[in-house]
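Contributing new records

If you add data, match the layout below exactly. Sequence lines come first and carry their own label; structure lines follow with theirs. Keep one chain per record. Anything else will be rejected by the validation script.
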Amino acid sequence: MRYFNKKMTAALIGCLMMSNISEAAPTEPIPASPAPVVAEAPAPAPQRVVYHPYPGEESAAAPDGSLSLRLTAKKQFYDDYGEFLDTAVNSPKSVNVHPDGSKYYVNALEAGLTIVYDVKTNKKLAEISHYLDEATDHLWAPLSEFYEFTHYPQDNHFMGKPVEATFSHNGRYLWVPYYRRLYDINAQDPSALAVIDTTTNKIIRLMETGTLPKMIATSPDETKIAVSCWGDNTIGLIDCHSADPKDWHYTDKFIVDYQLPLNYSLTVPVDRDNDSGYALRGTVFTPDNKYLLVGCMGGDGGIAVVDLTARRYLGRVMGMMPNVRHLVIKDGWLYLSINAAGYVQRVRLDKFLAAAVDPNNMCVDSWEECAVGSGARTIVLSPDGRYIFAACYGESEIYVVDSASMQVVTSIGADSFPVGLAISPDGRRLYSTSQGKVNGEGDAVDIYEISYGAPNVTKKNQLSAP
């Protein structure tokens, strides 16, 4: 399969019906309208045909010269030339750059692998397998009181499908939740997470989780891990303050309004990606470690708030657009990606929290917003907070937004269906992951170089002249 640049692809783009979300590549739905959104309602969306941009041929820049991006390398499941081939990159869901900037970790969901690459050379350093058997039995933590096996006997031998990830202990450990235990076809019983020691790239601890744990986050003081479970409206909280992994344990399970009852077939698969209550997703702790915020992609939306001091769920703050996918806090602002409508929104964090603790008015208005591409998934900010980068699944583009003006400054092509995004600590490299689909799309990690410069005032004035 040859690579297509934008001009070659433009003639082939049509309005394709968005396929039903499947277990083979679990993705979040794009509802038909910004009315109260339920995660169960995917809608048609314009998308590229198979699109694999070639490194060196894809670049973009802000009109004023303040920023430019260039696709310089990639890792891809299939490749005519072999130069970028890596068959381990099977439906990559997420990417995380180590805090020291030396390596990056890619969760290949359908391969059951976490792949480690060197940042400077993009050479593969390790493949971490999530196939669990007798050899990993000694790694399991004792079961907590929060999760019960009610449909199947507990079985710790399965292939885990790695979804997102978060670092703790100054980058020493990487926590990776599994979409489900492979034998649990409708994700009704506890799933699990693995903890990887990044000094050895080996799994050193395994713990149970709730059902369909898609998002995971570390508190700023690195004493807590939050696991948001898409499958049943629950959030698990783990105490990880100890340096000894054997001491890590669950302290709380928070329920967002109600715990979804699970009583599906044991033999006939159902669509759990589109029928999962509030479909909890984006998860972030506030900088003072006092609150936990979790985005609701399903139901009537909003952001769930947990008071960590009181150890109590407060409710859902409303007022933002529906179908909240990803959350980021930076420099006193709360940023959101809105999957369905393809927007990035932001509001002052103090204003949001004032509403969160007011039971009579849990609503925030006056959001600043910017339209990006359809299916806005993961967002990251540059280290100085000036730029927001958004992976837009429906348009195979990475959009760049100026955070001060909340205006798009440029966008650059990505392999079909980008979902994951990460930026290096120095802000000079951007990584995106594109999930695989049945027609040869996606299955790639794109690596961009970012350059920054002072705005070209002359050029900017020329552009705005009549």
